[in-house]
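Quick start: what a row looks like.
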Amino acid sequence: MMARAALISPLLLAACGAQVSGDQAMSFAPDYRGVETSLLDGDLVQFDVSMTGARNQADVDAYVECAAAQYALIRGYGFARHLRTNVYEEGGVWRADAVYTISPSLPRGLRKLDAEVVVAHCAENGIPTV
């Protein structure tokens, strides 16, 4: 189990461990506005998410990771590997489009997700998945 826990993305850990003042913590009220998925080719998937109330890009990245992890499980895979994410904010609405590969076995690369571990973390933190 220790090896699986080590695969949690650094972005999720950063989002959890971010130092915030009492006022910032109390005012964090994210509104997750949905996820759109597009299967690009075989195991290549694009995720488009939007939300308001994000404190910073790490909150949006965590939302995308939750979506990617759940999608991998839905498709019968146990892992996802991050390829790229574009995040932008306009008028208080944060949006991201990200591309991941999904796979049944542990992929190569630096930013890989163990889908079961990430989805459990998302549930514990109230971040919705697909």
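That is the whole record. The CA atoms of residues 26 and 96 lie 24 Å apart. Helices lie at 2-5, 10-17, 22-27, 57-74, 115-124.
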